[in-house]
Amino acid sequence: PRPEPVLDPFEIGARNIDILRQELTALNRPRLLNIIVAFDLAREADITQMADTELVGFIVAAVETRVSRAR
Fold first, then answer.
1. pTM of the predicted model over 0.85
2. Long-range CB contacts for residues 51-54, cutoff 8 Å, separation at least 24
């Protein structure tokens, strides 16, 4: 089973990407990794060596890409 994420980045990001970035910045590394795994964001990326700020950017970029494709 997939881990239960602390927030849905797509729900927040669809409303306001800046608020998503702020909320992600407040989270610790395990929670960021949990979001990435729960929403299957790292299909082809190696996230293990990324710094926390890079993880935040990675999530935001993935959300922006999917939200813009859906519009």
1. yes
2. 52/28, 53/25
